[in-house]
Amino acid sequence: MEIQGLRRRPRRLMLVPCAMQGHINPMIQLGTILHSKGCFSSITVAHTQLNSPSDHTSSHPYFIFQPLLSSDDSSLSSGTDFIDQLSNLNSNCEAPLQELLIQIVKNLEQHEDLPCVIYDPLMYYVKSVADHLKLPSIMFRTSCVTNMLSWYVCPRIKKQGYTPFRDFKSLELVPGLDPLRFKDLPILPSIFENLDAYLQLVTSVQNIGTSSAIIFNSMDCLEQSSLARLQQECQIPIFAIGPMHKLAPEATSISLHEEDRSCITWLDKQATNSVIYVSLGSIASVNEKEIAEMAWGLANSNQPFLWVIRPGLVCGSESKDPLFLPDDFKQTVGERGCIVKWAPQKQVLAHKAVGGFWSHCGWNSTVESISVGVPVICKPFFGDQQINTRYISHVWRVGIELENDFEREDVERAIRRLMVENEGEEMRQRAADLKLKTEFCIQKGSSSYNSLNDLVELIKSV
């Protein structure tokens, strides 16, 4: 079916996020920012039943939350079956989204334009639906610009005799992607079990097709050279409009976990820049030995710490309480440590007591820490986290990488380097300088401010 002939203003927007915490939040932030421009008649969020954001309708009254009737009730994880999980999610949602869009267009009033679809590329089925219905679409990538750029480079270097998939642990620099090493590329070791499926996924996610533009939650001050190179590759407009959480009010955050705000009261009692905040994100997992090494590294560092141990962080454990911590750990650290199941991260990072962040280095966490000037201990797990880590530690130089397996001595040493020693103070100063640059990006007439206005004009015109 082709939908055409109704080209008028104002325009409706359809947002289609991927069903993961780190993908839902940026999409909601983007929708909130676009709503604040007052140029669109309505904004619909088409979401899966999995990790549904519709429980947050009261804090987002300007969105229409529309569930897609997906039968998939599993959870997305970083395990070996991630590709299959994602493929099933795409297959299950394609027909419901197409039916929803057809119904929306049938109900358009005379003065209304066709809806524009903004989608997460992991939901690659959306592109097929939009193309089939001849609706304008825009890709919104929740990772860094360099991550997307790396997938243009990999096929070329493969032709030159390199084997990026076989050499995923190599410290050799990737030709054309300095300072990235092969080990920094967003490759999961588990893909070797089904390399063809992985390559097909990359092709689907990278496919721009007839998309009108690409949006990134990034900034010129962080990725100027990567933005310029990607623009040459893509030949469609690229809009870097970060840091988006600074452009959208705090209420736009959607947490799939209940935030424990008691940790803010605990932070209020701590000295300035004294606390190391530890959170490994919403998907990564560790085993019991690793959690014990983390615990004793934190204890032996003698630094106050706020540690997020969400249910499911420890492999095979959905326990509501961290029973797997060493028996005498809590007695050793006393009031020096605060453990919660989930924290209001942006508020925590902005707190004056927080002087460092031990992170998995997902892109949202990276942008949030940089925009408040907090240096980072990097422990990446998968995907673009390795790229983000390399830039944090070797380009922006506002953090250090915990490179080896979890060992308490290495953990203690990394914390003391960041929180106590001169090296950490120098990182903190560079982080403060970078914070000022990110603040400047969203000021009137600056790069992100201008990109956002240009994006709005493009959406209105496509």
TrEMBL record:
Entries under Gene3D superfamilies matching the protein: Glycogen Phosphorylase B
Pfam families noted in UniProt: UDPGT
CDD domains to which the protein is assigned, alphabetical: GT1_Gtf-like
Domain of life: Eukaryota
Coiled coil: none
Keyword tags: Glycosyltransferase, Transferase
Single GO term (MF): quercetin 7-O-glucosyltransferase activity
Protein family (similarity comment): Belongs to the UDP-glycosyltransferase family.
PANTHER family from the UniProt entry: GLUCOSYL/GLUCURONOSYL TRANSFERASES, HEXOSYLTRANSFERASE-RELATED
Protein name: Glycosyltransferase
Source species of the chain: Acer yangbiense
